[in-house]
Every structure is written in structure tokens, then in C-alpha cells.
Amino acid sequence: MLRVLIIGAGFMGQTHASIYNSMDEVELVSIVDKDKEKGEKFAKEYNCLYSEDLLDNFNSETIDFVDICLPTFLHEEYIIKASEHVRYIICEKPITLSINSLENIFQVLEKNNTKLYLGQVLRFWEEYVNAKNIYETGRLGKLRYIEADRLSEPPSWSSWYKKASKSGGGLFDLHLHDIDFLVYLFGKPVTVYANGIKDENDAWNFVNTSMTFNGNVIASIHGIISMSENYPFTMKLCMVGDDASYEYEMKAGKNLENRESAVRRASVYSKNGIEEIVTYGVDAYKSELKHFVECINENRDSEIVSLKSIKNTMQVMEAIKESLEMGRIVTLGAGI
Ligand SMILES: NC(=O)c1ccc[n+]([C@@H]2O[C@H](COP(=O)([O-])OP(=O)(O)OC[C@H]3O[C@@H](n4cnc5c(N)ncnc54)[C@H](O)[C@@H]3O)[C@@H](O)[C@H]2O)c1
Fold first, then answer.
1. Three-class DSSP category at 278
2. Can you give the residue range of the structural domain that contains 173?
3. Domains: count for the chain
4. Atom of ligand 1 nearest to the CA of 158
5. Is the peptide bond prior to 232 cis by the omega test (within 30 degrees of 0)?
6. Which of 63, 78, 172, 298 lies at a 20 to 30 A Cα distance from 160?
7. Same domain, 138 and 104
8. Ligand 1, closest atom to CA 35?
9. Integer Cα distance of 209 and 258 in angstroms
10. Looking at the structure, do residues 263 and 216 belong to the same domain, yes or no?
11. Same domain, 66 and 134
12. Span from the CA of 8 to the centroid of ligand 1 (angstroms)
């Protein structure tokens, strides 16, 4: 039985807690949150201990792994603190907001011999996993064009999301998902160009990114975290090849609420007609945590979310940010 401590009793802390409580091989032992009322309520709901300070836990409890569900700007500080005490850390995305901060995290992980698993959930999302398989088996033929969209109302449950210095704005909080998935699939692009709209909190909340990958594959990625009220949370992936195209679209409730009952459709279009791709409604957050728990049990790194691939994504995010700020194409270099 693996014993987990969650830091952060908010939206994602609760999502992770209810998954752990459904897993036979994990026991949720403790929640840490600076908000006493929230932490105590969480502890009661999930039947675990509560403490305000992370360090209170390590003397009295056996903790096998820590799961960080804190606001993004605190990830670096808490990964470093936790790595002094445990061998395994799961952390929500984005890992952090700059390459310098990422490099600092990686150095500490290495020094303390700690393994990190990052919750890049699209890599576990059924229809994105299917897209990867369909592409890799060659069914699309020569790939030409990709469109990836993510459109959401602003997160309504916590005010820290509004500040770019804390959340990275829509660029890091939302757009990152699609950038990460494409970089995971194809490696780093050769060039990046992005334009967007920045708000008064320095947050890029409307972003259009164009990327060219090796082999002359082009991608158009749209990330908007300031959709008007009542616009359903929408995600779309369209991959167009010479032989066939794959398209997935999902429309859920506000801020991805009701994702179990969302409209999800995935199809392959080819000369043979239209094939609906059957999915099983598996919850991606559950698949992700199940995979990380397996890795911990086997004391291994994740091959799905490797540290190398996390670094690749962060380098591309920095290039997009540079392009947004400078208004020009950024070249990452072919074949990296
Ligand atoms: N993978 C996904 O699809 C997804 C979805 C939403 C959020 N996220 C990410 O998950 C992370 C958490 O987001 P959230 O929506 O759960 O945030 P949230 O605001 O709902 O919860 C954060 C919690 O951390 C607590 N907290 C803040 N500072 C603290 C400190 N110093 N010590 C202890 N506790 C502290 C707050 O009291 C709050 O309970 C963010 O990085 C976010 O980007 C990922």
C-alpha cells in the first residue's frame, strides 16, 4: 500500500483525492493546505489527516509520495521542499513558468535522487491516445496539417489564476496542454510564430500559435481562456494526412464541469468513408494517476511523461512567449 500526502485542497486536490480513494493500492493519509477551513473540510470528506505545514507530516507519518496540487507559482518551492523528504513526487501541470525555474527543479531532483511525475493529462486522454496510435500506425498517410483548439471561460474558483505571474495566464494554464501534446508526438517544432491579446494582468489569454515541424508538417493551435459566459469548455484536435484525417471534438460544461456527460466525438475520414472511433469514457485523470502509481510501485521513471519531454515542452513555451512579446518568428532549429 502506497501512502500519499496531497498539498492543496482545491479543485485538482479534490479530483486527485477522489481517484486515490477509489484505488486499492493507495492510501490518502494527509492533506496540507494553508487555508485551515478548506483543509479540515477536505480531511473530513476524504477521511485523512490535515496539517497547515508540510513539514509536520514527515516526522510522524510514513509518506511514500507527495502529490502537489498548488497554484502554479508555488510548484518549484514545494517540489524542492518535498524532495528533501520523499523519493516520489506527482505534480500538476504546468510544472513551472520558466526554463530557469525548470532547470533549478531538475538539479534538485537529481541531487536528492527524487523521481517526478507531471500531470500532463492529454497524454492520457483517450481520444488523444487514439490520435497518437492512429498517426503512428500510418493510417493517416503523410501528415500535412494539425489544428488543436482549447477554449474556456476563465477559471472561476480561485483569484490567483488571473495573475500571469502566478498562473502564466491562458498561455501556460490552457494553451500549454495542446503544445505539450504536439511536442510529445512530434518533438520540438522548427519554427514558432504566435500572436495574441494580453490583458491588464500581463496574461496572454487569447493565443494563436503556428508551428512548423520537421517534414513540413504545419500546426495551428488556438488557446482562449477568456471565452464569454456560458461558452462550453471546448477541445478539438484535427490531424490531416494524405490518406485520412482524424478529428476529435469535445464540448463540456463551464470549466470542464460535467465532463462525464460531455459531447465527445472522434472520427477518421478517408476514401473508405467515415469511421466513428469507439471510446470507453475512461477518465484521463484516473489513467494518469494509475500510471504514475504503477511507476512508483516499480521504482521507475514515466516513459509517457519523461523529464526530457517536459523540458522540450518548456523550451517551446518559451519560444511562443518570445514570439508573442516580440512579434516575430522564433526558430528552434531543425531536428531538435
Ligand atoms: N490537469 C488539469 O487539467 C488541471 C486543471 C485545473 C488546474 N490544474 C493545475 O492544478 C494546480 C492547482 O489548481 P487548482 O485549480 O486546484 O487550484 P485551487 O486554487 O483550486 O487550489 C489550490 C489550493 O492550494 C492552497 N494553497 C495556496 N497556497 C498554499 C500554500 N502556500 N501552502 C499550502 N496550501 C496552499 C489553497 O488554499 C487552495 O486550497 C495548478 O497548477 C493548475 O494549473 C490542472
1. coil
2. 123-282+314-331
3. 2
4. 19
5. no
6. 63
7. no
8. 37
9. 28
10. yes
11. no
12. 6
